[in-house]
Amino acid sequence: MCSSYSDDLDPAVFEEMVEAVGVGVAIYDAEGVFRYVNAAYADLLETTRNDLVGRPVWAVATELEADRFEDYWGSFSEGETRTADTEHAVGERTVPVSTVTTRRRIDGTPYNFGTIRDRSELRARERELEERNERLDTFAGIVAHDLRNPLNVAHSYLELLRTDGDSDELEMVDSALSRMESLIEDLLTLAREGEMVGEAEPVSLATVAHDAWSTVETGDATLTVATDREIVADPRRLRQLFENLFRNSVEHGDGPVSIRVDTTDDGFVVADDGPGLPDGDRDWLFEPGESGEEGGSGIGLAIVAKIAKAHGWSVTTTDRDGDGTGARFVFGGVEFA
Questions:
Q1: Membrane-spanning residues where (predicted)?
Q2: Are residues 104 and 138 in the same domain?
Q3: Do the bridges between strand 327-332 and strand 267-272 make them parallel or antiparallel, or are there none, so unpaired?
Q4: 3-state DSSP call for residue 226?
């Protein structure tokens, strides 16, 4: 069969080309019989090429059935290509595979040409990811229950103590408990949602930014939104992004801080006039637990990075004016509505 590809193509050359592809290759005819397989495909199934050639394709490809093969074959049009994730099996050896099948003619005779890739490693990574997500869900549940319960008890006792009068010490306790509640919420967001986003839709940057500002304790800080443009985003997660950026600017400012939201050519920027960012490589700022400041959790910026990545955006940091003061968080690759 190999010699029929071209009068000028030597069978040995064709064989060498197919083997160099690096993936399984199989060709079967209108009867559903394998007419050619390469060594990579046979090795994948831990068998020999001679064992596969002459076999019906449905004896190996688990998604095909002998009594329905004629309909399957007839459903292909000339030149059509289909992809599938399925399993191929020989004996006790079953392998998850991704296939690409194309209808072609050789000397007027139709054949289906297939390339077959092993999905075992991908499946293993998918299972590992599922297990990790299950562990995160368990962790989130522990956080929600086992940490919130003692916090609620502490709040109750604090209110009882306040019946005897307020004091600076009680205010410090109240502030610490509120901080712990905020950290718990951030941990839950990071664990349960991570890089997930809901349905994206056109949203006003100004509207979402002002909504986020209204839920953050900003003190004497001020917000300016210098754009009326809309972007395509999950509005709930975009609001979380703004909330965490605003909170980060307020908490790291030496005094009343001014924050500005504006657009760039391919996205938007959130800038403040605070004391600035640490020198050097700043990618670590987006790692959970890294804040660059004693007492900081580093969770807020990690959430920002996850939300940006989930939308397919990039996020970089620079000084506001290039002089080491202020902070600019620049988001690129954003789709404008």
A1: none
A2: no
A3: antiparallel
A4: coil
